[in-house]
Amino acid sequence: MGNRLSKIYTRTGDDGSTGLGDGSRVGKDSLRVNAYGTVDELNSTIGMLLAADGVTDEVREALTQVQHDLFDLGGELCIPGMAMVEDSDISRLESILDELNEPLPPLKEFILPGGGMAAACGHLARTVCRRAEREVIALARVEEVRGQPQRYLNRLSDLLFVISRVLARASGHGEVLWQHERRRKPKPTV
Known about the structure:
single chain, mainly alpha, Hypothetical Protein Ta1238, Chain: A, two-stranded antiparallel ribbon, ATP binding, CblAdoTrfase-like_sf, transferase, Corrinoid adenosyltransferase
């Protein structure tokens, strides 16, 4: 592969448009650009998670593969009609999720985002993943988008939740449970 970016700025986007992978131009605020832009943001938040102390080798290996998948997913969204995310990618996430979740105790309460820096980064990545999923759904309502990107992001957000639980427990900080009893019964507003 040759140099992809010999010149970093082109000025072609100064009018508020950007080029898609098929050469067409769209507004930088288009649903398609929002979707693949949020997938890029998700990849960056996973990079932050991987840079945190306390990430296990198993989690590092899984998330490094996820980062490659997210480049593929972004490419699929950037090039209308492209297919890059496969059902096997989704199945792989499910297998990792099952393996990491199996030893965890069942949840009885909601968990507050936290539990150490790595776990907190995992929760941040999970919320960005959910936003990316919503943006892919919004795009699919008006343009042709295969179902695999949405399903991949749905499984990935679940995996990031489980990874956050694993990292919180491994860090010694533990999971912080939501204490819904801390308030008295709310009074009806009507």
